[in-house]
Design brief:
Layout (H helix, E strand, L loop, with lengths): L1 H33 L9 H8 L5 E2 L9 H11 L11 H13 L10 H10 L6 H17 L2 H11 L6 E2 L1 H9 L8 H8 L15 H17 L3 H6 L16
Parallel strand pairs: 1-2
């Protein structure tokens, strides 16, 4: 009798676990699809920043309200192969793994913009194998469902760009007192310069490191801008050619 009760309990527990897993899987799938058009109400990183006293300053804006210079700057700074890869830059991942093996005390990352969006929107900060595995799954899903332009748009709205400052619009207002759509090339490069460590790299006033890195970012922007794939993902519109008209005789 006791064995039968144990079997029933075990089967019931398995059914509950399976139903729970199924509900959670469907819920996260719906959430991923929903975020193709809607911005995340809040992220774990933003919540932690607010609770820990760093503040939460953000202002979401649409893709059309962001200067192409800002899009080009973050790609140049963080992920120059963004238009070409499927979410993972395997070459840089291998380099980072080799570097970390040689210098375990100085970890080097190789996250793409897609991976950073997956981590910041759906997960939490950390380096555990479980989180990395979940990051890989969400990276694959947003590449599949959202596409490059939406991934870049969300990135520019949720990424931290200063201590408690999230998104390009709020960063533009705080650092330059203007909207993200009006950023100049130099200003966009300076904001992008803080992305590797937004809490440490100061932009107001800009540190020497920030100025040096922004100069490097601007060089990369000039190099990458002519690429048709880059122009497509940043919505870079080519100036219309003026028609040549003969002066009246």
């Amino acid at each position: 009798m006791a064995k039968k009760n144990e079997k029933r309990f075990f089967r019931r527990a398995l059914r509950i676990l399976w139903k729970t897993f199924l509900v959670l899987f469907i819920a996260q799938l719906i959430y991923i699809i929903l975020l193709k058009w809607v911005y995340p109400p809040i992220t774990v990183t933003q919540l932690v920043s607010w609770v820990s006293g760093h503040g939460l300053k953000r202002d979401y804006v649409r893709n059309s309200s962001i200067s192409y210079q800002a899009k080009l700057a973050v790609i140049s700074s963080e992920d120059q192969l963004f238009p070409d890869h499927s979410g993972f830059d395997w070459k840089n991942i291998r380099k980072a793994m080799n570097y970390n093996e040689k210098k375990p005390g100085r970890l080097r990352g190789a996250s793409t913009i897609s991976q950073q969006v997956a981590k910041n929107v759906f997960l939490w900060q950390g380096k555990s194998f479980i989180r990395k595995g979940m990051e890989a799954y969400f990276t694959f899903m947003i590449e599949l469902v959202w596409g490059k332009r939406r991934i870049l748009e969300v990135y520019l709205n949720v990424i931290e760009m200063g201590d408690g400052i999230f998104g390009i619009e709020m960063a533009s207002k705080i650092y330059f007192n203007k909207s993200a759509k009006d950023l100049t090339r130099q200003q966009a490069a300076l904001i992008a310069a803080c992305l590797p460590s937004p809490k440490r790299i100061k932009l107001k006033p800009p540190s020497l490191y920030a100025l040096k890195r922004s100069s490097w970012v601007m060089q990369q922007m000039s190099f990458l801008e002519p690429d048709p794939d880059i122009q497509n993902v940043i919505d870079r519109k080519k100036p219309e050619k003026k028609s040549k008209t003969k002066a009246p005789k």
